[in-house]
Amino acid sequence: MSDPCQLAVFRTGAGYLVRIEGRCTMRESPTVRDFVCGALEDGADVAIDLSRCEYLDSTFLGCLAMLHQRGETNPGSFTVVADEATRRRLLHAVRLDQLLTTVDQPPTVADEAAPLTVAVPDREEFGRHMRDTHRHLADLGGPAAQTFRKIAERLDEELGPVEQ
């Protein structure tokens, strides 16, 4: 059996490196989103290191697309650490390899790792997160876009009208 997801945060000269190891899924996605969004809003640069990641589910992949968008609209920058083989294995099928800013090597870390503890949101917030991540994936196009759109639409039905 593959390792469950482990999340660790390191300080870098310009912000943070979040190392993702094992199989990461929707369970860890909101925690990563909250940490990265907060850091970006504070002006920190954030790199997500996927070099030790075995698997990302669609919710986590959609979260990466959302974080890319946040990195473009906040003072901090967002990058993904993944060599070519990792990009092909984890990101290519949903076209994230074309969207995300990627680098082959992580930034130099300034200290020891601190674990990023997973906090599972309430059911409604979790549903909204899943809906939003799947919308981002659908917007990327590709062979699975219609499937992701249907997932988002089904979640819309379950959650009720979107608040404006």
Structural write-up:
The protein is α/β, with parallel strands linked by helices. The chain has a single domain, classed as 2-Layer Sandwich (Transcription Regulator spoIIAA). The protein has helices at 29-41, 58-73, 84-91, 96-99, 123-139, 145-159, and strands spanning 6-11, 15-24, 45-56, 78-81, 102-103, 114-115. Strand 2 (15-24), helix 1 and strand 3 form a beta-alpha-beta unit. The model has no long low-confidence stretch (mean pLDDT 93).
Q: State the CATH class.
A: Alpha Beta
**Class inferred from helices and paired strands:** alpha/beta
Q: Which band does the percent of strand residues land in?
A: 15-25%
What's the helical proportion of residues? 40-55%
Lateral arrangement of strands in the main beta sheet: 5-4-3-2-1-6
Distance between the termini: 43 Å
Number of domains: 1
Low-confidence stretches: none
Computed over alpha carbons, the radius of gyration is 15 Å
Task: Please tell me what the overall shape is.
Answer: globular
> What is the CATH homologous superfamily assignment?
STAS domain
Q: Write the CATH architecture name.
A: 2-Layer Sandwich
